[in-house]
Structures are given as C-alpha cells and as structure tokens.
Amino acid sequence: MKAIVLAGGFATRLRPISYALPKLLFPVLGKPMVYWTLDLLREHGVDEVVLAVNYLADALRASVGKEYKGMRIEYSLEDKPLGTAGPIKLASHAIRLRDTFLAMNGDIITQINLTEMLKHHRRAKAAVTDALHEVRNPSRFGVVQLDPESRIKRFVEKPSLEQATSRMINAGIYTIEPSVLNMISPGRKVSLEREIFPRLAKRGKLMGFPFRGYWFDIGSLSDYQKANFSLLREQSSKSPDRHRSNVPIAGRRLVRPLLLGAHSKVGRSAVIGPNALVGKHCLIGRRTRIVNSILFDGVTIGDETTVSGAILAANVSIGKRVKIEPGATVSQNVQIRDGVRIGRNAVIHPYKEITTNVRPRANLM
User: Pairing between strand 27-28 and 31-32?
Assistant: First the structure.
C-alpha cells in the first residue's frame, strides 16, 4: 500500500514559530506531527510514502530521512503552489501508483481506521472515497451532503453556520484510484474539492466514509494547543503515572494532566501543570510555575518564573522572576532577561533578546 502526505503548506497561521520550523515538525505530545501520520499509515499496512513538500523542505527531509520503521520515504518538491490535487499528481511521479492509494493532509492528527475505509471504498467501487468527520462548527471546512448510500452529492466550501446543511466535513483523508490522476492537469494549481470531486460526484463515483474518534486539523496556534491539551487529557486518563518515569518528584508539585520529556530537570518547589507539556532536555528553575503551556525541546527557565497559557518554542531561554501571560507565543532561540513581563497574546519572533517588558498583543519582529 502506498500513500501521499500533503506537507507543502506555508503554515502562515502558525507563524512566527513556522518561520523556522516546518509545521509537520511541531511536537504533539512530544512527538513531531509527521510521525503521528507515518505511524497511522504504517499501522494500516502502508509501506511506501511520498511526502509532498515545499516550504522548509530540507528541514523536513533531514529529520525524517528515507526510511521510517521499515517504510520507504520519498519526497516530491513543489516549485510553486499546486492546490490540493496538483501535489498528488506531481507526487505520483515519485512512485508508481498502479493500485488504490491513500492521500492525506499532513497537518491532521486522527485515529481513523484506514483499513475499514479501504474496504468501504472497494465495496462501493468508488473512484475516490473521502473521510468525513462531524464537527461543531463547519464554517472553516468543506461541508458535504450524502445520499442514503453514502455517496457524496455535493460540497459546500466553508459555508456560514446558517448556510451549512450538515456538520459533516471533508476530513482531508482520501482513498484514490490511480485513474483519477488522469483528471488532474499537470503543472498547474488544481483543487480536489472544486474541480475534481464535483465531476466524480455527478458520475456517482465519489463516496463518503464517516468516522468517529478524535480528529484535529492543526491549522493555527489555537488549534495546535487544543490538540495537545485534548490528547494530553486522554493520555492522562489512560496512564495517569506516566510522568513518574521521567522526572524525580520529591520536592516538586506535578499536577495532572502533564507530560515531561526525557532528560528534563525540574527545580525544587516548582509547580508543573495542569495542562503542561514540557519537551526533552528542558531545565525548569526552583519555585517556577508552568500551567496551560507548551514547551518545545531545550527550553531553559530560571527561578521564580511563571508561564501561563503560553507556547515556548525550542531553545528559548528565560531568566528569573519572569512572568509570561496567557496567549503569549515565544519563538525559537529567544532570550528573555530577568524580571521581564510578557503581556497577554504577545508574539515574539525568533532570535530576539528581550530586556524590557512587552505589552499585551505586541508583535516583536
């Protein structure tokens, strides 16, 4: 089984962290997003994957390499944006797609049963089967209408809440017959949803596969936080003592749910959690508190500092008695000196040295 993972977006809503880090390398529960996708594909029998890349392709290639847990990894580089269908056509040149294959957006974290989806696709003799998931607010997505046999009748792209005829959306995961590649014009921007799917729907060859379970589309920093905290709560309920294997707890207060990465050290009288994800090789000072926050790998925080509701990217260094307020985003390799206050929703771009207070909603470029 072969699969194409669409990983070529510019991740504009994940800036400024995504300026230096590809979206698919953002950690979710301490594991880069791309490996959630590869593990899912491997679990369901995929042995060859093409990553359709564009922005920061070299960083992704260097991290993933040519093989992962026995799966062969190839790369397809877009010289220019090709929409949602164009990258699939281009990626098909990297491997031979003679049989049914999978394609999916790389910024999705889900527990979909791809094996059942494939069976559904083959029983229906569809050209494309689109995974569908029900959401509370469908206005950000493509809403679908199904007939009684689960054929997709039509798409409504990003409707208002009043216009939405259902809450069932396109989940960005597809089972595709190789004949569909002939419908995609090479070398230009082509939309699956607007150009290919309507033609297939008219022929009765576009099927839907509704599924339940978690599904996260990580398109923005708020989406990213939501996915991490939701999965953290689920994991904590299944394995409540997981944090005990990483960090000694004597003299520290660890409040579930939380995740502490390997080789991280926590100072005495520090309070970590609830809803705290601390990456690997982090150093947390004494009497420091971290709550509702995500720390990437290599973050250093001094004594008596408070981090609340923030995202701290890799290799951030924070001094003593610093206060970081909810909604703040601190990008890679930023240094924050002692006693500084970072206001609510402030955004600090990479490689800055912060020596004075940052007002709420400031954007330090």
Answer: antiparallel
